[in-house]
Specification:
This protein has 99 residues and is α+β, with helices and mostly antiparallel strands. It contains 3 helices and 6 strands. The model has no long low-confidence stretch (mean pLDDT 89).
């Protein structure tokens, strides 16, 4: 079983297994963050994951999820969507707009 050593802000160095860590990749998947519950104090820890750290964690079998960094919808976008739904051909217009 693979052991991964990292640091808890409170307890210092801790050892984890691959199932103790969750990796969140952003955008292209080169970087992200990883999180774990400290086995000593049970505090949730969140750390940045550089490209090197991501490569190591993936190679050891750590589970991951990819997140999309999207901006929130604006009021104008919501109003345009509602107006589109009021039309008879709303679906065709939605597909044509690429939104």
């Amino acid at each position: 079983m693979t052991t991964i050593r990292t640091t808890c802000e409170t307890c210092g160095d801790v050892e984890l297994t691959t199932s103790d860590i969750a990796l969140e990749l952003v955008g292209s998947g080169d970087t992200g963050t990883y999180r774990f519950d400290c086995p000593t104090c049970n505090a949730l820890q969140r750390r940045p994951a550089s490209q090197r750290v991501v490569t190591i964690l993936l190679a050891t079998g750590v589970a991951y999820e990819i997140t999309v960094d999207a901006s929130p919808l604006t009021e104008l976008e919501i109003d345009m969507f509602v107006a589109m739904l009021d039309s008879d051909d709303w679906f065709g217009r939605l597909v044509a707009s690429g939104s």
